[in-house]
């Protein structure tokens, strides 16, 4: 609403030089100004990349987005994104539209990798020709999280050690003590040194039946070593025989043919309702994905991780590493979660993991904030450094409309879907 301001006294204040035109002071919304000046619109972030929709806060001009182009232009210093919002606010629809249009605009220069805990990207995969890896206990597809990275990478062994540690700590529900950590680290390093592929089952065997070298390194008697190793042997056994069984406990069975197509969807819907297993499965799957995506290629990768809270629950440290590596390998990671605190609230406050989880946000410069429940607004304001006005918008956004915060710049954009996309992305079919 425009509002005429009348200060005390009979005459409204005047602005401008008294020698020029005398006009009364007005306040107006952008919507009113846009109707007064219909052809004046902000060009948002430029037109590199796919069209997303309209920039509501800048006269309804077109809104285009491509994290790689903005990185090259110096607008962003990393290409990672977080998409957060209440249930049904439009997160998935915007991400799917962005992926679909990125493939349409950039063709084979883009590759899409999706970690799909709900199985909701399968129609998208079929329609756009993405390969699907279906992980289910006892299923046909298996991924080996102990697979080496292609090329000569000195951090490879450390990555595999830290993944094994995170998985075992996740099962035990506590960090490993110094001896356990050393034992697991030695076992992984010894197996890696042979140059042959190995699996978590081989790691379990190497600790259950330690080589003489490992016993000597530990400076303990075989009996003392066996006692110290008991918790990790049980944890590894649980991982291989139950939690990750039939999915991550053997050699990778998925061929490399997925690499030549437009993308890959890893379907984890079979374990979505198992809240104990899901974070461990997500950790193993994100780790496998980041290993295979670190390759020399001209393709830029858009990696989507839905239900991101589960991926960071046991793996904040591991996950942070892959966000940082993303720039080296041209990978933009897009995390989707309901609440802004989903990433930071997974570990107890004050622990190293909690600090790492909080630090994840500093490696994510594009924050796409859909409607927030009122109790989340103060948290969103603090975590995403929103202004007072942006925080107010965050609780008032309609479906499909989000506050895009890039570094310190904020704008509200409405994702415009085509009729085809609306039908394809409809997750409300049962309700309507
Ligand atoms: N920009 C839009 N224009 C029109 N319809 C939309 C738009 N965005 C989302 N929708 C519709 O709203 C419904 C919910 O959207 P979506 O599944 O993207 O929500 P979500 O935030 O991902 O929900 P959840 O939290 O359950 O994952 C879908 O049926 C979708 O088609
Ligand atoms: Mg969704």
Structure description:
The protein is of the alpha/beta class and 432 residues long. The chain has three domains: 34 residues, no CATH class; 261 residues, 3-Layer(aba) Sandwich (Rossmann fold), CATH 3.40.50.300; 88 residues, no CATH class. Helices cover 41% and strands 16% of the residues. It has 16 helices and 15 strands. The strands form three sheets. The protein has an eleven-stranded mixed beta sheet, sandwiched between helices. A hairpin with a 7-residue loop joins strand 2 and strand 3. Helix 5 packs antiparallel against helix 10. It is elongated. It starts with a strand and ends in a 7-residue tail after the last helix. The chain binds adenosine-5'-triphosphate and magnesium ion. Magnesium ion (MG) binds next to helix 3.
Q: What does the radius of gyration come to?
A: 26 Å
Q: How much strand?
A: 15-25%
- How many E strands? 15
Number of domains: 3
Question: How is the largest sheet built, in terms of strand order?
Answer: 6-5-15-14-13-7-12-11-8-10-9
What is the CATH C level class of the largest domain, in words? Alpha Beta
Spans with pLDDT under 50 lasting ≥5 residues?
1-9
CATH topology of the largest domain: Rossmann fold
Quaternary organisation of the protein chains: single chain
Under CATH, the homologous superfamily of the largest domain reads P-loop containing nucleotide triphosphate hydrolases
């Amino acid at each position: 609403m425009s509002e005429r301001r009348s200060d005390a006294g009979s005459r409204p204040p005047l602005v401008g030089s008294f020698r020029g035109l005398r006009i009364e002071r007005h306040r107006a919304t952008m919507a009113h100004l846009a109707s007064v000046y219909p052809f004046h619109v902000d060009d948002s972030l430029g037109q590199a990349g796919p069209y997303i929709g309209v920039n509501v806060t800048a006269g309804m001009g077109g809104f285009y987005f491509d994290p790689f182009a903005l990185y090259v232009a110096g607008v962003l210093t990393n290409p990672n994104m977080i998409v957060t919002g209440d249930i049904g606010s439009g997160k998935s629809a915007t991400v799917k539209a962005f992926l679909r249009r990125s493939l349409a605009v950039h063709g084979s220069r883009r590759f899409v990798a999706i970690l799909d805990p709900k199985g909701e990207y399968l129609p998208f995969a079929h329609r756009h020709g993405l390969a699907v890896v279906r992980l289910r206990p006892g299923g046909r597809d298996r991924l080996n999280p102990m697979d080496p990275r292609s090329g000569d990478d000195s951090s490879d062994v450390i990555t595999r050690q830290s993944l094994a540690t995170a998985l075992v700590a996740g099962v035990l529900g506590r960090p490993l003590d110094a001896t356990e950590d050393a034992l697991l680290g030695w076992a992984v390093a010894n197996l890696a040194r042979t140059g042959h592929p190995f699996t978590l089952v081989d790691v379990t065997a190497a600790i259950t039946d330690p080589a003489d070298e490992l016993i000597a390194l530990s400076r303990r008697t075989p009996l003392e070593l066996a006692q110290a190793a008991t918790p990790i042997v049980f944890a590894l056994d649980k991982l291989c025989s139950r939690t990750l069984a039939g999915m991550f406990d053997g050699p990778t069975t998925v061929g490399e043919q997925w690499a030549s197509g437009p993308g890959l969807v890893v379907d984890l819907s079979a374990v979505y309702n198992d809240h104990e297993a899901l974070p461990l499965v997500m950790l193993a799957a994100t780790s496998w994905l980041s290993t295979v995506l670190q390759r020399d290629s001209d393709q830029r990768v858009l990696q989507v991780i839905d239900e991101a809270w589960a991926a960071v629950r046991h793996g904040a440290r591991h996950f942070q590493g892959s966000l940082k590596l993303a720039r080296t390998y041209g990978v933009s990671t897009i995390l989707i979660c309901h609440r802004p605190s989903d990433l930071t609230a997974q570990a107890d406050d004050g622990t190293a993991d909690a600090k790492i989880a909080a630090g994840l946000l500093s490696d994510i410069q594009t924050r796409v904030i859909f409607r927030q429940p009122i109790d989340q607004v103060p948290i969103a304001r603090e975590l995403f450094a929103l202004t007072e006005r942006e925080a107010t918008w965050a609780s008032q956004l309609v479906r499909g409309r989000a506050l895009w915060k890039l570094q310190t710049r904020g704008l509200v954009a409405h994702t415009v879907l085509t009729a085809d996309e609306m039908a394809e992305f409809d997750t409300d079919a049962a309700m309507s």
